[in-house]
Amino acid sequence: MSDPSERPSESMPGPDTSGLKPLSNAEDMPLSNPSNSELSRIMSRAGITMSNGFPLDDGDDDDEEEVDEDYVAVDQEDANDFPYWFRRPPTHHRTKLDELHPFVQLLSVSNIQDCVEVENAFPEEERCSRDKFIYRLTRCPELSLGLFTLPVIEEDQPKPRATLVGHIIATRTSGPCVTDGSMKLPKNWSSERWTFEEGQAVGHEEGGGTIAIHSLAVLPEHQGKQVGSTLIKSYIQRIREAQIADRIAIIAHDHLIPFYESFGFESRGPSKCQFGGGGWVDLVLEFGPEQ
Q1: How many CB atoms lie within 10 A of CB 201?
Q2: Where is the composition biased (Acidic residues) (predicted)?
Q3: pLDDT, tens digit, 9 for 90 and up, residues 9-35
Q4: How far apart are CA 280 and CA 278, in angstroms?
Q5: Rounded Cα gap, residues 111 and 161, in angstroms
Q6: Of 131, 133, 202, 268, which residue is least crowded by CB atoms under 10 Å?
Q7: Between helices 112-119 and 130-139, what is the axis angle to 10°?
Q8: Beta strands at 54-55 and 50-51: parallel, antiparallel or unpaired
Q9: Which class does domain 98-286 fall in?
Q10: Max alpha carbon distance in the chain (Å)?
Q11: Distance CA 240, CA 248 (A)
Q12: Distance of CA 113 to the CA centre of its chain
């Protein structure tokens, strides 16, 4: 609110009237044309035309009545608040994902137990084992991604440990699609850099041009909150911008094909993978020469 002493309309220079009594017939006395230059300057800056000391009315009575119907009185103290209301951005409608206060980051061996719990969202025969998590998060953690939630706490409370809500776990393979071999846990992987079975590499192949996603899982209580969508979009963007692979491949059941197709994956037909009993479809996202 502005200081009243700064309002020129409330403090105008004039003759000293101290000691003078008001005239009883002041309302009947004619007013002369004001000669005060300061008053004229103020009225001119305000866009008010004066005639014989009175402001001229630019409109007729009918127009004035129409304006009055839509006129809303504004208290002077509130006038300065209006620019804020006009310039503030549109209100963001919070989603269920916003309520998680999510953030994504790479996973490590410290997140193994978290991943085991998230993986329980799958049927038992389709879950990644603890040993596979240890292998993949030790050999190629840069190909993983987790979405975490961290509750809002008071300043005087200790910082809690973030909760893993969903994850993506992957390895590299030289083939164009996910295979049973790429999903295997190599024997003696901690001491051997490469493992071959029947002339075929198994497990993670360093330098392979395909990122083979073996798990995209979300905790059951947080499904339906766009956690999976956020994860896969972030993952694709990271791999594309890093330019470290030619494609991303995954296997999925029929009901999830539209979900992956919405992110650019293409169906390559039934997969040869028999993991978890089979019945999978190969899906591939090609980056092309220009990523």
Answers
A1: 20
A2: 57-68
A3: 334 444 444 444 444 444 444 444 445
A4: 6
A5: 11
A6: 131
A7: 130
A8: antiparallel
A9: alpha beta
A10: 120
A11: 10
A12: 28
Q: Calculate mean pLDDT across residues 188-217.
A: 90
Give which of 218, 109, 237, 97 is closest to 168, Cα–Cα.
218
Helix and strand element counts for the chain (H, E) = 8, 11
pLDDT band per the 50, 70, 90 thresholds, residue 37: low
Place of tokens 């991604």: 145
Query: What is the residue type of 50?
Result: M
Amino acid making up residue 236: I
Q: For the full predicted model, state whether its pTM sits above 0.70.
A: no
| Contact status, residue 229 vs residue 276, Cβ threshold 8 Å | no
Reading phi first (left if > 0) and then psi (alpha if -120 to 50, else beta), residue 6 is in alpha
Rg (C-alpha) for the chain, rounded Å, is 37
Distance of CA 109 to the CA centre of its chain: 28
Q: 225's torsion region: left (phi>0), alpha (psi -120 to 50) or beta?
A: alpha
3-state helix, strand, coil in the chain (%, to 5): 35, 20, 45
- Match 């997969």 to its residue by tokens: 271
Query: Would you state the pLDDT for residue 158?
Result: 80
